[in-house]
Amino acid sequence: MPSRPLGPAALLAGAVIVFAPLTGCSGGVDAPGPVVAAPPPPEKAFGQACTALSGNGGGLDALGGQPVLTAIDQTKDLGQLSALIKTAKAKDIFDSMENVTVFAPNDAAFAKLTEDQKKPLATQQGAGDLVRKLIVVRDLRKDDLQDKQYTSLQGAVIKAAGSGEDYRIGGAQVLCGSIKTANARLAVLDTVPSFG
Fold first, then answer.
1. Alpha-helix residue ranges (DSSP H) falling in 105-148
2. What are phi and psi of 172, to 5 degrees?
3. Is 189 within 8 Å of 109 (Cβ atoms)?
């Protein structure tokens, strides 16, 4: 006896049988997607000396699109640090960095150094050692400076402590912190910090 072709109702029932198990798979259209953490909101610079600092004639906001080395060159009171970086021939280090923090002693901080402390900084090796001590390979925001310690690019331990608007890095006071540049965050210090 020849078999009869299946009607539309039978074909539909077969399709339901075939596809029904797929609806329970985790990859179905109703499955939740992966949770992506939102980036932290931008953080404004903080500290008593922020208003006195000027970048490129437009205040600290003008530094946001500048590479960190350019920002240092253009920030008031960081002339000695800029000269130290040149002595260290460290331009390539700064140009290659991303999402780091640079602790930046101001000109008055370098003036506090004794002659014996200044002597090594006149050589490429001595200047380079200090420059690398001032860099932490992490984007440190304000909350990251509360009673923590970090290892610098040179391998030295640097301690951060404080709360509110009063923070210290290796014993040096943060005059203006969380200055954002294109590839780093700057914290201007009143003293060359001590390292562990």
1. 107-111, 115-118, 124-133
2. -90, 140
3. yes
pLDDT band at 9 (very low <50, low <70, confident <90, very high): very low
Q: Whole-angstrom Cα distance, residue 3 to residue 21?
A: 29
Q: pLDDT per residue over 18-75, tens digit each?
A: 444 444 444 445 555 555 555 566 788 999 888 887 554 556 766 777 899 999 998 8
CA atoms within 13 A on the CB side of 9: 0
Distance in angstroms (rounded) separating the CA atoms of residues 4 and 163:
84
Q: Report the interhelical angle of 124-133 vs 79-87 (nearest 10°).
A: 120
Closest alpha carbon to 105 in 196, 183, 195: 195
Q: Give the predicted TM-score (pTM) of the model.
A: 0.77
Residue with tokens 């002693």: 105
Is residue 103 a contact partner of residue 136, using CB atoms and an 8 Å limit?
yes
- pLDDT of 88-115, one tens digit each? 999 999 999 999 999 999 999 999 999 9
Name residues whose C-beta falls within 8 Å of residue 164's C-beta, 6 or more positions apart in sequence.
Answer: none
